[in-house]
Here is the input.
Amino acid sequence: MKMIKRLLYLLLGLLGLFGSLVLVCAFRPDITEAIAGFLYPNQSRNMRAEISNTPKDDAAFAISEDDQVTDVHYQGIDEDIASDYLPPDQSEIVIPENVSGKNGYQPIQDEQEQIDEKAAEQLHSQLDYGYTGDGLDFDAAYYPYYAMLDEKGKHVYRQIYANANELYSTFAPVESVSAGELKNIFSAVVNDHPELFWLETAYAGKYVRSGQCVEMDLKFNRTAQNLESAKSHFHENADQILAGAQNLSTNYEKEKFVHDALIDQISYHLGAEMNQSAYSALVNGQTVCAGYARAFQYLLQQLGIPCYYCTGYAGESHAWNIVALDDGYYNVDTTWDDTGSGTYDYFNKTDADYAKNHIRQELSVYLPPCNGQAYRDLEQAPEDHSLRSLEDVGMTEEQVITDIQSYYEDCYNRMLQNGTGRYTFYNVIEGEELLKEWYQDYQNENYRQAYMESAVTAIGASSCEMALGMEELQGGRYLITHEVSVW
Here is the structure.
């Protein structure tokens, strides 16, 4: 009898302990997770990976940059998609001096706003889906980023594409998607469709606390204000290049023709307008790496040659292309080939060739590896490829600038001399380090306070716009072109 009582007391004690544990776990989910991690370590890790970007409170809602690089990177991607691309070690990347600073790709920007349930219900009653894109389909051979998405992601992709095509900016997603999923889907649309040149590479979204997006807002550049006219200019300039390429006998010859035509017609300008678009390259003739790559992608697509927009790191954020020819895939970087009179240093290269200075990132890691050989290194640089000298550009040794402050002073004096109106002036800076400092100051807009604002004030003007160009010269020097409008 005593033994039975002891067993009953022990059972009651265990039940009481279990009840206390349940209460603690209910109010302290961190303890629950710790216990789960102890009992089921693998399952606990998997659960954290799935919920790591689900907001639990206002402070946790904003996704950090670290989250975007890891978890968000894979959200909404088809689980069967595997990457065969092997990225090189970033610490071993070395950027050649003649292309240093020729980047300019801007990663997708997403503005996130959390709203309460009442506001979400109001939006639900006001918003529609816009154009859903139902019935659209995109061939994986030409639109690889679409193929990377799961079925839900493809549905939203079609909706974003259709609404962008119709300039329908604000709508409710047709599927329940999180911030991370939506960013990957939007990136896929932008990466696949250079013809949507009026669509900015940024958007806004409103989300409830659970993380679900309830409103998406697309952004359009100024060409959307008169889109038919902009399309006419775009197609007219594109058709001029296509007309010269379309009757060539092989895809390789067409590819090379387009490569050479873009280098001949485009200038690299860090401050070019709409420089993330194919429009900046094909119509304005001034752009950065993103514009070169989107123009190359668009033209080859029109010629029936699969060409993909590839983003990553090349000293800074950078964009280039991957092209499919009959024996495989090749890397092409028209931006970096646009040096001197034009080169083929980065034309039709393998991943091994690019491992010295290019690393794929973001969704581009899922693009096919580049191992083609038949069309690699077929072209030699033209005989007149040698860099120009100071004398060639009409400058003297005394005019060479060796520090950033002297550069600012020279720009200030040039603007004062020229006053208001539209004009161009040049200066020469020396050394890769100064070039990097110069590039970074324009990226960060430090030049405004350094000389432009004071120059505009001294001139008595109210506004100033400037487009920049850079050309490498002999002896590690760089010719800087400033196209200025002051009024």
The radius of gyration is 28 Å. The chain is about 45% helix and 20% strand.
